[in-house]
Amino acid sequence: MVLEGIKDHYLVTVKIVRRSAPKTRRVLGIDPGSNALGYAILEKTGSAYKLISIGVHKTPSAATHPEKLRSIFDRITSLIEMHKPEECAIESPFFGKNVQSMLKLGRAQGVAMAAAIAKGLPVEEYAPKKIKLSVTGSGNASKEQVSEMLSHLIGFNRQQVGLDASDALGAAVCHLNQSGLSAKLGSNYSGWKQFVEQNPTRSKK
């Protein structure tokens, strides 16, 4: 466009940068068990977490082991159909001395993984120490410390949900944030102890 009466013309180019919206990821976290299986559906948009669902699936006490496995498969399938997670993170079994218990735990994990895979979810497995390290900064943290840290960061009543459920949530957090929760905590925290020392008023009674 030419404006009459103006001798000097300046061409100004304005570059409009459109920032894309942060990607949202929804993950199903699982803490496997043949009698009690913890689960959590966690969503992350940018650096913000949103807890969709959390709980413990208890298999019928009088059921046979195969029946308990079927109950686990059905529950995981139902959770996926209801909440539509796109990924699955599961805690790997720890190595114990009781061989029979290890076999049952391994079967429970396998069935939970099979249910997720059958619904088209990619599944990642994480060792307990890696999950603890990701959440608290220490691979030797207790289940209670993991639960306490998660309750501060994400917001849930840890007394009501139980440790199996918080372990499942820890697996989901570990999967969503491979570098741990340093972005959420800030670089000043090296682990659970330092977090508590610098945030004395945030500890739950």
Primary descriptors:
single chain; 205 residues; alpha/beta; Nucleotidyltransferase, domain 5; 5-stranded mixed β-sheet; disordered C terminus
Report on the architecture of this protein.
- There is one protein chain.
- The protein is an alpha/beta fold.
- It has a single domain, classed as Ribonuclease H-like superfamily/Ribonuclease H (Nucleotidyltransferase, domain 5), CATH 3.30.420.10.
- It has 8 helices and 5 strands, in the order E-E-E-H-E-H-E-H-H-H-H-H-H.
- The chain has helices at residues 65-83, 99-118, 128-136, 143-153, 158-161, 163-176, 182-185, 192-198, and strands spanning 24-31, 36-45, 48-58, 87-91, 123-126.
- Strands 3-2-1-4-5 form a 5-stranded mixed beta sheet, sandwiched between helices.
- Helix 3 crosses helix 6 (163-176) and helix 4 packs across helix 6.
- The longest helix has 20 residues, at 99-118.
Mean pLDDT, rounded to whole units? 82
Number of strands: 5
Described by strand count, sense and barrel closure, the largest sheet is: 5 strands, mixed
The name of the CATH topology is Nucleotidyltransferase, domain 5
CATH class, please?
Alpha Beta
**Which strand order spans the largest sheet, edge to edge or round the barrel?**
3-2-1-4-5
Taking the alpha carbons of the first and last residues, their distance comes to 70 Å
| CATH structural architecture | 2-Layer Sandwich
Summarize the structure.
The protein has about 200 residues and is of the alpha/beta class. It has helices at about 65-85, 100-120, 130-135, 145-155, 160, 165-175, 180-185, 190-200, and strands at about 25-30, 35-45, 50-60, 85-90, 125.
